Amino acid sequence: MFQIIDGKKIAAQIKEEVKSEAEHLRKQGKEICLAVIQVGEDPASSVYVRNKQKACEYVGIQSVLKKLPENISEEELLATIEEMNHDCGINGILVQLPLPRHIDEDKVIKAVHPDKDVDGFHPENVGRLCIGEKGFLPCTPAGIVKLLKYSGIEIDGKECVIVGRSNIVGKPMALLLLRENGTVTIAHSHTKGLKEITKRADILIVAMGKPLFITADYVKEGAAVIDVGIHRKEDGHLCGDVDFASVKEKVSYLTPVPGGVGPMTIAMLMQNCVAASE
Length: 278
Ligand code: NDP
Known about the structure:
By secondary structure, the protein is an alpha/beta fold. It is 41% helix and 16% strand. The protein contains 10 helices and 11 strands.
């Protein structure tokens, strides 16, 4: 019998915790404020930004949306970030990605002050994660560790396989699982014999960006499978990188899409905002 890992429910619990922390801080006269920068009008980005703002409103964090035109220059964007870095009324800064092609994403990530980097993407925070120091953790992988822990899935000593090595999901995921004493393998598009590797996993994290790629023959009997991918199908429904219907027959735990990793990403962002104010 497999169990669905209900990300929506776990995220709701975390948001309640954040809500009471935010209230506690407010009573001490501390308001938390997140600044969100959106460049252009990409519809998917608009949805993500709206969801983050809604979560802020729910937990009692102020949010300021700075919408900038698609053709804004890199210099102007960097200047906006610099201004926010110096604004004591702003605790966290988030630049919604992706950015238009003429803007260097790496430069923008590095421009956000590490103490306001609630996405956990700045090299200083990545370095801290790498050497085990306290810092902002990237929201999606941090949310996945919470999902595993809340579901009672032991990481210590387990074979953990991550498919995908992006800077925002795969790599920090590997570091976090290592921190939890998992035995970690990272697979990517040059990996040979992917199936043999994924079938070794007690915990399989899939962040490939390939709809329904992972079918039952990629997973071990009884494994815990976390699906990070999110795709809109032609019929308008969402799906992940994992073929839920076939994989659920073989595993012990599985996250759905939607309602798995996605809500946790936002809940962890809220947690980072509280940490930023402290
Ligand atoms: P990227 O495109 O940056 O990375 C994809 C990774 O998958 C790469 O490392 C790539 O390898 C690897 N890969 C691609 N094809 C294969 C293959 N056939 N075999 C093995 N590895 C492969 O994606 P992201 O990490 O940014 O995101 C992954 C997915 O997660 C996307 O669907 C994205 O929308 C979703 N996402 C969801 C979030 C949420 O909150 N739910 C948050 C962030 C992302 P290589 O490096 O060699 O190219």
